[in-house]
């Protein structure tokens, strides 16, 4: 086995695609070196050594010592220095590097190889004593804290003491002698804390650092990070040992980190920071203020690298082009300039916001770096969500309440609520709410989902609230510490303002700002790059994308987002309107068919208008209308008082009304008198709905010349007979309306597959169905035997403990629910070739589920209007 791979100085044993073996950092250092970029030479100890280390009681492979020695000699020869040499010492950095970048791993140790002797050699060779002692004290500090575990405060105390005694504030004001004193103080302190002298032998230093990297793979921080991110412990980390280059040798030296394009907007501009006369993490450590890269981005008074170091900058610009051409993606790079010569120390694909990822994908396709199909794969469908949400109108007046962390983008405005249950209850009534919590926990998920936005007063960018909100695409401001929340008083306080439950606030998840009252918003930009990428996605996708919509507003939004029809119109949502609910209730409480028909006749014109509006908006596109589905009890008022009121309004006595209401109450309504069971016991309900649909369709056909294609969907079918009966009712009404109006239109009758029995007998059911639509919400409930309304209490716990890999209501469960879908598709199409198949329900907008739908060959997915672009992109990626 080869345990060590060299890179640089013309000897590159690794490549970018060897990241599993060499880790991301090592693989890309080798790749950069092999395409001719200036990379200081070094070598990578493979991840297999890490695996071996843990499999063998923390022993290295026998050959490792010799292999490292040989690789080190190669580096020595390449740079003309020797490790531990008193006159011309080679110094190295020791850097960890797993397959994926992983916080929790050992920090880099720089300047390794320095000791009381070599520091003098470095001083003499460079002619710069200050630089040599600065490097040495840095090394003792890094090695001391990272490898020997000495608290970093102990080092800072010593620097502070020396600065105080010299009367200086800035590190830069310290001289060679000062740094020598710091280095000596460090060594004494380390010896005192660890009980052993600071290691002077470079060889021992090297193995100490290598060991520390491998040990850090199993430290608690790394283990936790791996668990949260599904990274297997078997992967292991690699160790990179690399010749040092120095950004701290004077004014013609620098170090920096940057992105080849702006990672927040995607703009094609060099974006990042650098510091003159600095080393390693100085740029991010905040000791001095880093300066911008490009002159175009510099504010007055700033010293952009483009002006300060034009030669090195020009070289960096060239490197940037080489890298982007080579990797065909935006890169996040680390570099150092030593005496005006540029060295590359790291590159990787850069993390970016959704907006940047969209712009970069489209720009790169236009530049010819990638093709359109590749561009389509570059944007994560779920991230589009962020771009589709409204943002605050920059010109709108506002009154600031507080500021927290910009934890999840988008703006939201709504009434303050302090509990998840309250959020859910109010949202169900159609209210916009902002969930305000000190912090959130998995029990709050349902409320976070129901809320328009989330505000917490504690926790950071990776707090529960932040992570979950980003995942859900909900705007979130986290850790707004100036706000005090008083749950018992149902109020929040900040800077002398008191906001009570029910009062409106506005969040800007992109800036972290919180405002009192509503702030005007602007709709998202759906033109430009977004439209372009969607167009490319539409070219490659096979499945159609429809929306779940009942109201004209939803239908219009859906069209704007590119929906190609309605996949689910839930007619019961139309019954709650105050104008109609009276007639609905009258129908429900009538004990005779005649009574019900009288009430239904009042509803007919309303329903007809509903469908007319939808057909007009959908202009000839298919519209799937589900006939009444929920148990009738849901429409009745609750509580004695309200029931008495209803009784009075209908002119019946309160007692019999009370009895009727309790007759209708069910122990388990989800599996009770609902779906087509209603249509079978009260055929007049479905007849009225069918009439409304056909009359509306005929009217719109006449009015616009574009005949809509209603797809009438019968819910909760468990046996074929149910579909036969209800289908016959619908067909009868169709014939009546066609002969009354003298116009015939095309239509379909199909069913929702949402019960396991229906899926398993889909061949029988298909004989009476023109289409199937998988109602995977109910199918998930009935397959798992898991009530969606009650699962919130334990499901998060299941997901957290990995008893279930994902919430099956969010992402389709391929093994169980998916298997039923697959069976139903096969059986259905076995009987009826070309049987139209679709999915409605939450899963239609979930990228992983959309991928599943592609595999089983569905014709379309249907999802909520705002998710339509997500589904379009996901469908395209699934087809590629
Ligand atoms: P991280 O993974 O935390 O970014 P790195 O291993 O990339 O850690 O090292 C951090 C920084 O240390 C680099 O960005 C670079 O500035 C500096 N560094 C690492 N190796 C060298 C080297 N051989 N010469 C000079 N500076 C180095
Ligand atoms: Mg680090
Ligand atoms: Mg780095």
What does this structure look like?
The chain is α/β, with parallel strands linked by helices. It folds into four domains: 4-243, 2-Layer Sandwich (Dna Ligase, domain 1); 254-352, D-amino Acid Aminotransferase, Chain A, domain 1, CATH 3.30.470.20; 389-522, Phosphohistidine domain (Glucose Oxidase, domain 1, 3-Layer(bba) Sandwich), CATH 3.50.30; 541-631 and 666-879, Phosphoenolpyruvate-binding domains (TIM Barrel), CATH 3.20.20. It has 34 helices and 33 strands. The longest helix is centred in the last third of the chain and has 26 residues, at 593-618. It binds adenosine-5'-diphosphate (ADP) and magnesium ion (2 copies). Its EC number is 2.7.9.1. One of its GO terms (molecular function) is pyruvate, phosphate dikinase activity. This is Pyruvate, phosphate dikinase.
Which helices and strands, and how do they pair?
Elements: E1 4-7, H1 19-34, E2 42-45, H2 47-55, H3 64-79, E3 82-83, E4 89-90, E5 92-98, E6 109-112, H4 118-126, H5 129-147, H6 152-166, H7 176-194, H8 202-216, H9 220-228, E7 237-243, E8 254-259, E9 271-276, H10 282-285, E10 291-292, H11 305-308, H12 310-327, E11 331-338, E12 341-349, H13 354-366, H14 372-378, H15 381-387, E13 391-392, E14 400-403, E15 405-408, E16 411-417, H16 420-428, E17 433-437, H17 445-450, E18 453-456, H18 464-472, E19 476-478, E20 484-486, E21 491-494, E22 497-500, E23 504-508, E24 513-516, E25 521-522, H19 528-540, E26 544-548, H20 552-560, E27 566-570, H21 578-589, H22 593-618, E28 622-626, H23 640-650, H24 654-664, H25 676-681, H26 683-704, E29 709-714, H27 720-741, E30 748-753, H28 756-760, H29 762-766, E31 771-775, H30 776-784, H31 795-800, H32 817-831, E32 836-840, H33 847-856, E33 860-863, H34 868-879
Parallel strand pairs: 3-4, 16-17, 17-18, 18-19, 26-27, 26-33, 27-28, 28-29, 29-30, 30-31, 31-32, 32-33
Antiparallel strand pairs: 1-2, 2-7, 5-6, 5-7, 8-9, 8-11, 9-10, 11-12, 13-25, 14-24, 15-19, 16-23, 20-21, 21-22, 23-24
Helix pairs in contact: 4-5, 5-7, 6-7, 13-14, 13-19, 14-19, 15-34, 19-34, 20-22, 21-22, 22-26, 23-24, 26-27, 33-34
The structure holds adenosine-5'-diphosphate (ADP) and magnesium ion (2 copies).
